[in-house]
Amino acid sequence: DFFLNDPELQEKVPLHFLSHKELYEESVRKATVAFRKVRKMNEMGQDGVDNYSALLGGLLGTGILKQGNPLTVHYVMFLPAILGHGTPEQQAEWFGRAWNCEIIGTYAQTELGHGTFLRGLETTATYDEQTKEFVLHSPTLTAYKWWPGGLAHTANYSVVMAQLFSKGKCHGIQPFIVQLRDEETHMPMKGITIGEIGNKLGMNGVNNGFLGFDQVRIPRKNMLMKNAKLLEDGTFVKPPSQALTYGTMMFVRVVICRDMAAYLSKAVTIAVRYSAVRRQSHINPEQPEVQVIDHLTQQYKLFPAIAKSIIFKLTSDNLWDMYNQVTSELDKGDLERLPELHAIACCLKAITTADAAAGVEVCRMACGGHGYMTCSNFYGTYGMVTAACTYEGENTVLLLQTARYLMKAWQQALRGQELVPTVQYLARFLSSKNRRMDWDDSIGGIVRALQTVAAGKLRLAAEHIEQRQKRGATLEEATNQTSIELARTADAHCRAFLVQSGYEMIEKSCATASPEVAKVLRTIYHLYAYDEAMKALGDLLRFTTISESDINRLQAKLEDALTELRPNAVGIVDSFDIPDDVLGSPLGAYDGNVYERLYEEAKKSPLNQEPVNQSFHMYLKPFMKSSL
């Protein structure tokens, strides 16, 4: 209420009727109002990270800033980068000013010519031993930074990832703090070329920009040196682990998983409520038209999306705990579980974003023609979600990174070495005498079956790489030739993890829930597990003894779960507790007045502000009156 009832944060004109420039300016205005209110909450004693989280990655933020927040990267990447890469002295110099928004930062890594392949980045930072400065330069057009949020016209500083050169040698990608604009006039600094990249499918309030450097000099202290260091004489000191450099991206991937749960819960709330209002067709000819939600096909479109939004949320909580545990171990110099966290964060980011994007689109289509309208807010939500399939690591590349980790784990398992928790199922697979697991449709059986699928695919991928090498391919060539299998292996590993983690987290929640709520939670989980198993039937047939009668039984269990959830579906999405202003959709409003609200939205169109549009007199009338 503190935010949504503020007149300054309420939408006067729907964003889709604004120009590109007006949309950005409105986004900046709202962002500054919102963060001033966060400061006010802090002064009132209601301080905490949760206030920022709600605006940056939570549902509240998406309700207020429907096309994205131009300050998000400042909080989510610039500040964590200073903490993750800066020495205590550098944190003292930069963090306080950034936290108080005396300076606004962004994080410039992706370039016009390179994104996920970090080693291919072209921006250079060459150390000048005479002046004790770095010279940042964009040697080509493709070296221009491209995509950072808030870069174009919002930020005046950036953490820039560039290839470090000293003493004639390249020392790889390192982070540097660079001033982009004058703190008073906001004009670009000397040697800086900066601007906005243009309109996008969504997130047009984020102010994504481009950035070029022409021999821009910064002092040596502006290289963030918590991990790697460069001494005054130009000597490079390597970090204890190269993976430490990518800590900020891992943090963001953890946050993305949580965001996907929020976006999917938003889409499914709209679709379920609309499906409870909309009536279509007769199931029994003797009775009136039924609610669309009574059709089993509609339930199968929507209820798994409910389950996924809950499982993704719980798994992101699990991943968050794992992230905090591993980062605390890192501070003590323990790097043992860092590869495991990296691997699971990579594949979870890939799967949750892909499934959320697909889920939002299914929800849109489940709402028929009305779902196609911009005001339904599926378009805006889809734009936010599908972008996450690409930023902070393109999904296929992330799956292949997980697969590379799994290949190493497979070799460890073959040697009988101890395995970390997320891959311990490989030891069980290797100890089994049967290549095909005996099928068991209990929840534990489904978890084991999906793990067996992942292990079986991994075994085949490893064998195929070895066979291709024997035929003359290098390891790299053989890996590329097996990359389809490897990506699918990582996908299977992640889905097995989600089903297992979901079970553990649901049972943990049930321990403190009432028996009635626990029953609903378990039904939600069962539907998720059955749906994942049904979608993996081809693989289950390859790696388990599942039979046609087993599949029929599994299908019946899935349909029973849908029927069992039907009376609770609206109650479940209501329990997400998403205010109407955050949903931003006439289809999903709590009062169910769908048609009245749709009509009110239609009347807001600029074309409806006059009875006759000028195009009639300028073009239509002369055309209609002319003799053809």
TrEMBL record:
Top-level division of the source organism's lineage: Eukaryota
Pathway membership, UniProt: Lipid metabolism; peroxisomal fatty acid beta-oxidation
Swiss-Prot/TrEMBL cofactor(s): FAD
Record-level Gene Ontology MF annotations: acyl-CoA oxidase activity; FAD binding; fatty acid binding
Any one Gene Ontology BP term: fatty acid beta-oxidation using acyl-CoA oxidase
Domain Acyl-CoA oxidase C-terminal per the UniProt entry, residue ranges: 445-625
InterPro entries attached to this UniProt entry: ACOX_C_alpha1 (IPR055060), Acyl-CoA_ox_N (IPR029320), Acyl-CoA_Oxase/DH_mid-dom (IPR006091), Acyl-CoA_Oxase/DH_mid-dom_sf (IPR046373), Acyl-CoA_oxidase (IPR012258), Acyl-CoA_oxidase_C (IPR002655), AcylCo_DH-like_C (IPR036250), AcylCoA_DH/ox_N_sf (IPR037069)
Localization annotation: Peroxisome
Domain Acyl-CoA oxidase C-alpha1: residue ranges: 246-407
Alphabetic keyword roster: FAD, Fatty acid metabolism, Flavoprotein, Lipid metabolism, Oxidoreductase, Peroxisome
UniProt xrefs under Pfam families: ACOX, ACOX_C_alpha1, Acyl-CoA_dh_M, Acyl-CoA_ox_N
Residues given in the record as FAD binding sites: T110, G149
Gene Ontology CC annotation, any one: peroxisome
Keyword Ubl conjugation: no
Domain Acyl-CoA oxidase/dehydrogenase middle: 107-216
Domain Acyl-coenzyme A oxidase N-terminal stretches: 2-104
Catalytic residues identified in the record: E392 (proton acceptor)
UniProt similarity note: Belongs to the acyl-CoA oxidase family.
Protein name (Swiss-Prot/TrEMBL): Acyl-coenzyme A oxidase
